[in-house]
Write a structure and sequence with these properties.
about 180 residues; about 0% strand; globular
């Protein structure tokens, strides 16, 4: 048993060292636009380690948006799309709001982990905060898209969903929130 613990410790240390090396490689691209940066960072936007995902997203944010905007809007992997959408919300033009929210609504919310769901909601919040509130049919569509998931099983999700749904004036959100508060 002692040997197993030693093997696990060595393996964990090697894994941590490998993660550190990847993060340092990505961080080398945080100082400005560089050739090959988007290609290097893109696969890491879906990495299981959140610090690696963050470092990869910051690489994108330091590159000209024109180099990766189309790739972000056409991304099919949910985790990659969420991270790219956050970068695009922070650096893209407000005219992208409609396309970006539609792309995010294309993600199957129910198939995401809770952490990914919270990240998706955060991406939607950032798009709204930085690019402007959706109006008309887009606003209604976003509210109708999220409303079936509220209330959720966790307080963290309920907090994120309630903020967005109240802002979007979703039907029934006040009643659902008051019922949650009572329980």
């Amino acid at each position: 048993a002692e040997q197993d613990n030693t093997v696990q410790s060595v393996s964990r240390a090697e894994d941590e060292a490998a993660l550190r090396n990847v993060r340092k490689q990505l961080e080398a691209y945080h100082s400005g636009a560089k050739q090959g940066a988007v290609e290097l960072a893109w696969p890491y936007l879906r990495h299981e380690d959140r610090f690696i995902r963050y470092a990869a997203r910051i690489v994108l944010e330091h590159q000209p948006v024109a180099e990766w905007q189309s790739q972000a809007l056409n991304e099919k992997d949910p985790q990659t799309l969420i991270q790219a959408a956050i970068a695009l919300a922070r650096h893209g033009k407000p005219a992208l709001r409609h396309s970006l929210l539609n792309a995010l609504m294309g993600i199957n919310f129910a198939q995401l982990t809770e952490t990914q769901q919270i990240d998706l909601l955060r991406a939607m919040e950032l798009v709204i905060l930085r690019m402007g509130a959706p109006e008309g049919a887009l606003k209604d569509r976003l509210a109708n898209h999220l409303n079936p998931y509220y209330p959720a099983k966790s307080n963290s999700l309920n907090r994120s969903l309630s903020k967005l749904l109240v802002y979007l004036e979703a039907p029934g959100v006040v009643e659902k929130t008051l019922a949650l508060l009572e329980t």
